[in-house]
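Long-time lurker, first post.

We've been arguing in lab meeting about whether glutamine would sit comfortably in this protein at all. Half the group thinks yes, half thinks no, and nobody has a model to point at. So I'm putting the question to the forum: if I give you the sequence and the SMILES, can you give me back a predicted structure of the complex? Inputs are below. Any interpretation is welcome too.
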Amino acid sequence: MAVKEEFRQFEMEVGEIVEEMRSFTHEGSVATYIPELRHADPGTLGCALYTKNGTCVSFGDGEETFTLQSVSKVVALALAVMDSGEDQVFDKVGMEPTGGPFYSIARLALMNSSKPLNPMINAGALTVTSMIGGRTEAEKVERLLRFIRELTGNDALTYDSAVAASEFRTADYNRALAYLLKGEGVIDSDIGIEPLLDVYTKQCALSMSCCDLARIVFIFGHEGRSPETGEQIVPAPVARMVKTFMVTCGMYNESGELAIRAGIPAKSGVSGAILGSVPDGMGIGIYSPALNEKGNSRAGVELLKRLSRHFQLSIF
Ligand SMILES: NC(=O)CC[C@H](N)C(=O)O
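Top reply:
Settle the argument with this. Predicted structure of the protein with glutamine, as tokens:
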């Protein structure tokens, strides 16, 4: 009874915090460079917590669905390392934060070697996606879907084809990056660059709710094990590596500040999705599409900071 009461109190406090943070949605704006994303309602703020006893509780607009966008980079990284091996992946992609924006071409072109600095920027993510197992575009997409369904426990999960097509049509920066990387021999995708962009845009368009998001990150926070069966979905060292990238590069050039102010390994996407991992604790999934100037969810970042302060969730 006491535990139940405690949990109810906890739920109430989180609910209040979410509603308090909603005011920050007015300070951001929805991404428009992927045309389909501009339909999102900027006032939305949802959150879900996947807790240790295997239940998921959602708050605010937590039932809404949205696309992963760059949050998918953590999923793709785990999968590419599982499929192609750590050595192969990090032969092509570095491990260092950039301090620059996620889409930067200039940095890549100006470096001595065109090896992308890390897997969380677009150049690195395109390279990582090329190393997901599968001989054809369809096989790679299938591989991704199988993995994401395992991570979320949601067999119906798929990508939003309108968002994927919208990004594929307008992906000029990513197209430029991918061809540059191919020219430099970093990407040697046997499926070709256009099919690779097709896989990448479908990966970014994987569509889900905050609870799905929270379950994914819960698994990364629990050494890669399924919350129900304990089965190893992601090898523990891979889960640890992914979380470390979340701390150093997950929020792009806001990663340092978030590490100090929240101390929660997190990854964001331009849809306004954020996942946060509290080791041995909750998986946090957030959705709020109004973004700050760094491309991170304005209210989502505030919510993470506030949850961390209130419940003392910093890993440091
Ligand atoms: N930061 C992001 O979420 C970027 C993802 C988006 N699909 C892109 O490649 O531009």
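For your lab meeting: Residues 2-21 form the longest helix (20 residues). The chain has a mean pLDDT of 94. Whichever side wins, do check it experimentally.
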